[in-house]
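Extended Data, panel c. Modelled sequence:
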Amino acid sequence: MLVNYLIVFLISMVPLIELRGAIPYAIGFHLPLFLSYLVAIVGNMLPVPFIFFFARKVLEWGKDKKIIGKLFTFCLQKGEKGGQKLMEKAGKGLYWALFLFVGIPLPGTGAWTGTLAASILNMDFKKSVIAIMGGVILAGIIMGLASGGVFSLIGI
């Protein structure tokens, strides 16, 4: 059983899969939901400070490199362009927008992407982490309900 919790933890750390994949895995293996939920949140949040403080630096460093330069430049440009649009639309509600971006479990959203966007936008670390953690908690609740079949029971 400990191995399954370790797998939940590791799945929740994987970019693009994150907690959105870890919760259904836990439910599929009939692990207790609350403990699985806590393990997945910790695993999903663990990379956040590293992404916030180092991802932009790595992308900036790699944009001039021969093999990886185009990809890294693309990531920086896409992040900055998307960030500017988000700032224009969200205004003072930027952290709420970050919370919803991370919290609504759609492809391409999540803690990794939200943290990278916050880093590229030079958002406040503490406020960003609070918004991202809130989003991860919301995504976990949504995925737990969806995976548990609650949505099918109420006709959604």
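Residues 46-154 form one domain. This feature is highlighted in the accompanying rendering.
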